[in-house]
Amino acid sequence: MGSAGPPLLVGVDEAGRGAWIGPLVVGAVAVRPEEVERLREAGARDSKLLTPLKREEVYARLGTLARLGSIEIPPGEIDRHVRQGKLNELEARAFGEVVRPFAPARVHVDACDTDPRRFGRRVAHHAGRGLTVVARHHADRDDPVVGAASIVAKVRRDRAIRELAERLGAELGSGYPSDRRTVDFVRGLLRPGAVPPDWLRLSWRTTQRVITARPARSLDRFGP
Asked: In the structure, what pLDDT confidence band is assigned to residue 209 with cuts at 50, 70 and 90?
């Protein structure tokens, strides 16, 4: 899809906010407003409702219907912002940056903040232009453009995790601390005296539990 013609409608969402391993990926989809229904027909919806194989299939269709974009935020940058209590601001900045190339008329985003309007204002600020930003909770479920963006973010994050697993020659699982394969791999890696790798989020409580608990105890709470 070219850039000529009427202004685009952009949807933005993220994948990997709560992950333990790998990047947080912000995905964007830009489409002409009159073609939104085609995204729905192509299968655009909340990526969590689709299997990995189905997400890849829909992702391939999206590339023929819309312009796609994404930004990867590495674990080190996530850690710095978590320690400062600024994870939401980091995401708002990335949301704003990912929409800039599209020069959209309107942006719909899945709000990462408990206050959607506040998050929308921060995204608009970082976008650097007088955009209308509509931020809502569960927008990936209710809006096909945001749902499409959630698929872009999830597919590109999953690919990043697969690439990391291939580089390490290991089974990493999904990269989330709720995944037993991920937990077992990290427990084995973080032996006493081991230097934590740069692809692991060190600011997560889960990391500190694994480092300090010998033997590791049950991980009943996860996240930053």
From this structure: confident
